[in-house]
Amino acid sequence: MAMALLVAVVASMNAIVNFVNSQTAAVGQLASVGDRYLVLSKSGCLSDSQLSWETADLVKSFDEVKGVFPQKVVDGVVHAGSGVYAVTLRGVENVSAYLKAERAYVNGTVAVGLSEANLGVLLCGICSVNLHESVNVTLGDVRLNIKVVGITQTQTQLDSELIVPIETANYLAGSDSLSFVEFTFNERVDRQVALSCLSVLLPQNVEVVKVQQTGLFLAESIGETLGFLAVWSLLVYVVVAAASYVVSTRLIVDCEYELVTLQAIGAKRQRVFTMVFTYTLVTALAGAFLGLALGIAGAQVASSVLRWVWQGVQVVPFLELNQVGQILALSILFSTLGCVYPAFKSTQRRL
What pLDDT score does 351 carry? Predict the structure, then answer.
């Protein structure tokens, strides 16, 4: 049973890491965000940033920029059907122009009114919401019934967000401040010079930051995760070998009388070795299959409990077919290595 639990640890960790890596890889394949810049307050993080509309007007008046979109981003809750889902709500001054700049495909129309919204295609799948259905959006004590007039697909983070006119975001948040202003520079502009001029024009309590690419970072994160998993799995397999050694030694001690009897009636040392080795191998094989089943089932049960406790959390652990074979093979291999010495030692002494 101990061996089965050790294999279950490896199987469940592989299943969870597979899900995390699949989600990370999906994010890494999102469309490039291009050379975009954000104007935000020097608050330390984007969620705490607050700008005035005067700052947005200053950015708009700067001749070297284009595609200026004042935005307000807040965290809200969507009540759809019987589920409650945490969402990121993005309010944009001109939703139509913003989605056009994002090269978004819109199934339906663009949100223009206070009670209209565009849902990202991923968010629609998570919340099980269809086009022209209504959802309740809650932010603090404020609740608003919003109709989904369009489903957007951009291959960016917008696919998992709720996009509304900025008036809707202001109504839910209870304030008309902005989170940031997004813009790009015109072509054939010396961006370093233009950036310096814009920084002088803006108030001292704001800063301009460039939106960074995340592909390389995510690839490195996946590599580090897989490296950690490999080291952890190796340690577990070493413990599996130790458990196999203990099982083999215990077998020899418990069956001492039977082994003596076999030798007394003429059993060869090779036969004794084969018996001990076969018993340990069968135990390892049974433990590997049982541990594999326990690991997968345990990960699935844990993910179901997590979805039940925290609505909107979607964790789907899984194992690839080659990983199943690898776990079984390594478990049996290390179990075999652990039982070889006790089995050999049992043939070198007269019981």
Answer: 45
Report in angstroms the alpha-carbon separations of 190 from 32, 35, 137, 194.
Answer: 21, 13, 43, 6
Residue 219's pLDDT is what?
Answer: 62
Domain ranges of the chain: 2-27+216-346, 33-212
CB-based contacts of 22: which residues, under 8 Å, 6+ apart?
Answer: none
Asked if 15 and 317 count as a contact pair (C-beta separation under 8 A), the reply is yes
Which of these ranges, 19-33, 95-109, 319-333, has the smallest mean pLDDT?
19-33
Structure tokens at 97: 């122009």
Residue 216 CA to residue 220 CA, distance in Å, equals 6
Q: CA-CA distances (angstroms) from residue 193 to 41, 69, 189?
A: 21, 22, 8
Closest by CA to 341, choosing from 256, 237, 235, 252, is 252
Q: CB neighbours (10 Å) of residue 313?
A: 13
Neighbours of 309 (CB within 10 A): 8
How many helices and strands (H and E) does the chain possess?
Answer: 10, 10
Residue 88 has pLDDT above 60, yes or no: yes
Amino acid making up residue 87: V
Which of 53, 32, 6 lies closest to 206, judged by CA?
53
Q: Are 18 and 318 in contact (CB under 8 A)?
A: yes
